[in-house]
Amino acid sequence: MNNSRYLGVTLAVTGILLFSSKAVLVKLAYQYGADSVSLLLLRMLFAFPFYMVIALLKRPQTEVSGKDYLWIVGLGIIGYYLASYLDFLGLQYVKASLERLILFVYPTLVLLISFVFLGKRVSRRQIAGVVVTYLGVVVIFGSELTASGSENVLFGGLLIFLSALTYAGYLVGSGWIIPKIGARLFTSYAMMVSCIVVVIHFLLQPHSSVEGVFAFEEEVYWLALLMAVFATVVPSFLISYAIRMLGANTFSLFGSLGPVSTIVLAYFFLGETLTWWQVAGALVVISGIFLAEKGKGLASIDLKKRYI
């Protein structure tokens, strides 16, 4: 392996590990009394300057029409505001490790959306991957419901699944516009749109106040800053460069590190544990995603756009 490949692998692994820490940081912030909307607001506000600088320095690769910008607004709302909001809500009810496993099924949702709405062909191997993936999810949640006896777990799991679904829709919808303006610039625009929408959401909440955002314990702001910089901005660039150096197909081999690293981090920082049934279910989910992503074209559809 040459130095370039070593560097690409290092960037890929580091980016994935940082990105997968988000759920753990959210759960830690909840322990200090933060609510989902305020925490999402803080994350977006801390990340906003980085993406604004990119938007100011870079220019679209081709001419962008007013209709294109409307699509960017819509996709930004769906992909970064709604998906993130549902994810943060769901994390109030489920373990960080389970959250990452549910979000990990998004490639199968990209596949299904592309099949239903775009008429793209699905191979038998991809169908098998989808079936295996959701069997693993059933095993995981069946075990968690038995262990906790709480219906809130099912509700939280549904919220996170809807987060994965909205994000998958964003990925499919953004496929035609990214080549026009470039991946980093599109992500910057979409992130800035989502930040504005989160601010509006916060202001429309009953009893919300600007003073309330600055009334949390100091730890909440440090966790939000870490989430914005080291679990959002930094890994987005690391993984973007890793994909460029290794290729999407090679990078996809490292994808399973995300759920695994979240499980490890949740064990050390949150004291979370998984039952043997859930570990088995996690292995089944990862195997199913691997099957689905090895199908022709799926890796190139979403890996290049998720981590930029």
Residues in β-strands, percent:
under 5%
- Rg, Å, rounded: 19 Å
Structural class: mainly alpha
Query: H/E series, N to C?
Result: HHHHHHHHHHHHHHHH
How many domains is the backbone divided into? Answer: 1
Distance between the termini: 25 Å
Kindly report the oligomeric state of this protein: single chain
Low-confidence stretches: 299-308
Largest sheet: none
* Shape type: globular
Proportion of residues in helical segments: over 70%
Helix segment count?
A: 16
Number of strands: 0
The average pLDDT value, as a whole number, equals 86
Membrane topology: Multi-pass membrane protein
Organism: Marinoscillum furvescens DSM 4134
Protein name: Threonine/homoserine efflux transporter RhtA
Subcellular location: Cell membrane
Task: Kindly list the characteristics that best describe this protein.
single chain; 308 residues; mainly alpha; globular; disordered C terminus; AA-Vitamin_Transporters; membrane
Structural summary, described in words:
With 308 residues, this protein is mostly helical. It has one domain. The chain has helices spanning 3-19, 22-31, 36-57, 66-90, 96-103, 106-118, 124-148, 151-173, 178-181, 183-204, 210-213, 218-246, 248-252, 257-270, 276-293, 298-306. Helix 1 runs antiparallel to helix 12 (218-246) and helix 2 (22-31) runs antiparallel to helix 12 (218-246). The radius of gyration is 19 Å and the shape is globular. It is a multi-pass membrane protein. Keywords: Cell membrane, Membrane, Transmembrane, Transmembrane helix.
